Amino acid sequence: MKAVVFHSLGNVSVDDVPNPLKLDDSIIVRVKAAAICATDLRIFRGERSAKENVILGHEFSGEIVNVGSNVKDFSVGDKVAVYPILADGKCEYCLKGFRNRCVSRKTLGIDVNGGFSEYFQPPPEMIRLGHIMKLPQNVLFEEAALLEPISTVINSLEKLQVGFGDNILIVGAGPMGLLHVMLSKLKGASNILVSDYVEDRLNIAKELGANYTINPGKEDFGERVKEFSKNFGGFNKAILTVGVAGIVEQLLDIIQPQGMISLFAGGGKAFTSIVDLNKIHYKELVLTATQNATSEQFRKAIGLLSSGSLNIKRLISHKFPLENALDALNLRSELKALKVLLIP
Ligand SMILES: [Zn+2]
């Protein structure tokens, strides 16, 4: 079968690899759609490593085509999505419900074979943990490929307790920023301000519910925030969906007292900052972050998608056959693409 394989730092190719063998304790999933994420891009560009010869991809959905004799909970034909974390299920964090923080966590597409392939076979423990999740019939495969990013945004907004009355600044209108717009709106946020350098993305943000947008390349960021504040009374929550350290200091100045700032994106070596801690103290600010999502939040993402209240299609800008995955990865590196799907 065709698969996108990591060989060594910066060396990723589309290869012919053996099909998975039928195992009594596992299943085989025919991958129907997979989405490219920023982590895949970092691996592709040689900015981060993965396990040698691992199949990339942790955002995908598919249909079960083989069920091992010892597997009782699944049938051939089931539509599934995969919570892409392998956890031990018994450490302190797992027992608290945070499998994304498991002390022996492994991630699909980095440490264990992922879904950029025609077939996916989960390690048996993944089935036992309940990380292969059945999808309601009305959920489309292509949309279900975005369940993982949706779940991470649920995590982000739950940590910030976003709800009625909140004015939120979202930094970055890439796919993750736009998902933050859509979900903040669903959670009842009052006003949403979005900042990005790409005008097309800001237009989509408006279409999806942003009240105000800022293009710092064309407008004065501080002035535009003041204008927003005059109308809506300032913002009390801010989320960085791009790893730009410089803006944190600025946010500490302009966010309302008792506000919360969350670092949703990481940013590599350059993502360091020296901030005046007095600003945090005297304004009683909270500086926090989220990474990944819990398995419970992944289940919530399935429910949300199934409810039909998310216009998730709007985030899918391109589709490529799996064999053209390298073109897809190159395109995704350009800012004009949003979510790029691979269709095996
Ligand atoms: Zn654990």
Question: What are the SSEs and their pairings?
Answer:
Layout: E1 2-8, E2 11-16, E3 27-35, H1 38-44, E4 60-67, E5 79-82, E6 85-86, H2 92-95, E7 106-107, E8 119-120, H3 124-128, E9 132-134, H4 141-144, H5 147-159, E10 167-171, H6 175-186, E11 191-195, H7 199-207, E12 212-214, H8 221-232, E13 237-240, H9 246-254, E14 260-263, H10 277-282, E15 286-289, H11 295-307, E16 316-321, H12 325-333, E17 339-343
Helix pairs in contact: 5-6, 5-11
The structure holds zinc ion.
Would you write up a description of this structure?
46% of the residues are buried. The chain has helices at 38-44, 92-95, 124-128, 141-144, 147-159, 175-186, 199-207, 221-232, 246-254, 277-282, 295-307, 325-333, and strands at residues 2-8, 11-16, 27-35, 60-67, 79-82, 85-86, 106-107, 119-120, 132-134, 167-171, 191-195, 212-214, 237-240, 260-263, 286-289, 316-321, 339-343. It folds into two domains: 2-138 and 308-343, Quinone Oxidoreductase, Chain A, domain 1 (Alpha-Beta Complex); 151-289, NAD(P)-binding Rossmann-like Domain (Rossmann fold, 3-Layer(aba) Sandwich), CATH 3.40.50. Helix 5 (147-159) packs across helix 6 and helix 5 (147-159) crosses helix 11. Helix 9 (246-254) links the parallel strand 13 and strand 14 (260-263). It is 30% helix and 23% strand. The strands form four sheets. Strands 3, 4, 5, 8, 9, 16 and 17 form a seven-stranded mixed β-sheet that branches. Strands 12-11-10-13-14-15 form a six-stranded parallel β-sheet, sandwiched between helices. A two-stranded antiparallel sheet has the order 1-2. The protein is globular, with a radius of gyration of 20 Å. The protein has 344 residues and is α/β, with parallel strands linked by helices. The protein binds zinc ion.
